[in-house]
Each structure stands twice: as structure tokens, then as C-alpha cells.
Design brief:
By secondary structure, the protein is of the alpha+beta class. Helix content is 26%, strand content 24%. It is built from 9 helices and 16 strands.
Amino acid sequence: MIVIVAPAGDLHGRAVAHELMSRGVRVYGLDLADLNEGLHLTERVENGRVDAELRLASGEVILFSEVETIWWRRPRIPDLEEGFAEAAHFVEDEWRHLLEGMEAMTSTRWVNPPNANRRAGRKAFGLAAAIQEGLRVPETAITNDPEAVRTLLSEGRPVIYKRIGTAGWHNTATMPFGPGDLQRLGTLVRCPAIFQERIDARLDIRVTAFGEDLRAVEIESQAGDGSLDWRLDHTVPFRPHDLERDTARRLTRVMGTLGLEFAAIDLRLTPEGEYVFLEVNPSGQFLFVELLAGLPLSTRMAEFLLEPGRSLVTRDDSCTSGLPVPERAQQDSNL
């Protein structure tokens, strides 16, 4: 069995589940929000052994020790019940402790291990790992201190700013720092952000990493309306890209440093031909790359989840899916 932890309407989970089931693999789609509605998770210590189990509304029990791989795609905690409003922070913290303890209770293969996934999602960890492995990283200030931003500006380079996390908001695009932003720096004290030197680009590069297997595409971002943030314009060409070998080795080491098996990595290729590391997203999107560049990434993800010595046996009753699309399904727009 392969377990995919994702919101029930997540298109990436559904695409990969389809690929797996077409190979005769049993798949269970686990939306952790459903723990409020008929699912029960238990982490058990018994007779000197540990395990985790999921009891379904039907009464069926899934033992995590019997699961081949868990794809920790897009976990989310259950919605807070109205009656718990006064204890919201307490209840949320209890859920997080339960869910983040799953990794310790089973030797199942995780893609990615939840604690590594959470840590790598903090941009500072990715930048530090890239520096450690010898990649060029933009001059950066992750801060709530206006003076730190002024120091970065004093170096005379153009500067951009963007959010630190992945929470949805009205406008989360990468923005150029302009004269009007100087007057707003005082608000930084109440909400931090990332400020970086602006890197001139010939191309933007998106790398989808399956362990040591790196699938890169080049994006003609400077030809459209997304010259600063390629996510704003997908009408420009997306093409497969031959990643320079030394850069590929360094990116693979970054994955190892962060403890990741899968990630999406963003780079910029300067007019001089230098790769500059921007960030790593341990739960990055890839279906848009598949569609725009013609790379079969959902197929590759299915293969990757099966890689550790999986013997495929097709049986008539081997395919199940827990991936319906409820009205409340939530999609994270972060790429």
C-alpha cells in the first residue's frame, strides 16, 4: 500500500494515485482534516514495539508498519470545532503533536520525512544548505528590522521582497523594492519578510528532484509579464533543461543536507551563465511543469514512490482510493 497525505481535492495526489492504481498498487488518500469526521489515528507502544494505525469509519484498520511508502504531500490539521474556540491554540497544538509524532512510530519510508519536510519548508534552512554546498545565493535579509533592510539597500543593488511562508494571501508575488516601500518599512516590525538582492536572469530554472534524479526545465521568464516572478506568466516557453553537472551534484547534496527525498528547487540562470539558488520547496507543485514542458512527472513520482524493492502484483481487488473531492477541499497556491 502507498498512502498519500494530502487534501482530498489535491490534483497532484489524484494524478499520482491514478498512475499507481494503473499499476495494480493499492493506494489510500489520507486527508488529515477528516480526523474530525470518522477517521481515528493512534500511535501505540505495545510489548516493546511501536506502530501507528488508522481506523477508518468502516472499521478497517490500516497499520502503518504494513505501508510501503507514505507521501507526505500536503498535510493539514483538522478544522477546529466551534465548541473548542476558547481553547483553539491548545487544541491545535495537541493535533500537531499527534501528527508530527507519526514519523517516530513506524519505519515506513516517508517522502518526505515530516520533520525534515517541515524544517526544509523554512526558507532559512534551504539558503543555509545551499551556501554549505557551494551554491551562489542572493544577498539576503530575513527580518522584521527596518535597519537590516536599509543596510541591504545601502550596498547599491536592486532589491526584491517576498513572503517567508506559504500561507495564502491577496498578493504573494515577488515584488521590487521601490521608493514608496521605504515609507512602509516601519510596518515590518509587526510582520517579517524576506529581502534579497535582485538577480538578473537569462532564464529561470525549475528543478523537480526525485532523490538524485533531477528533472529541470528552463522558463523564458524575461519574455513575458513575469520577469521578476515567473509564476505570474505561464504563456512563455517552458522547455526541458540540461542542468550543468556540478550544479546538479551540489543540489543533490542540498537535498541530503536537508534530509529530503523529493523537492522542487528554483534557480536563476544569469546572463553570464551562472546558476543562482533561490529556494527549495519540499512539497512543490509539478503538474504545471508536466503540462507546459511535456515532462511525465506524475508518472515519475509514482515510480519514485515504488522504488525501494517494490514487487508489483496486479490483483482485481488491489486498487482502492480514498481521494474523493469534498466541497471543503483546500488548495495551497504556493508553487
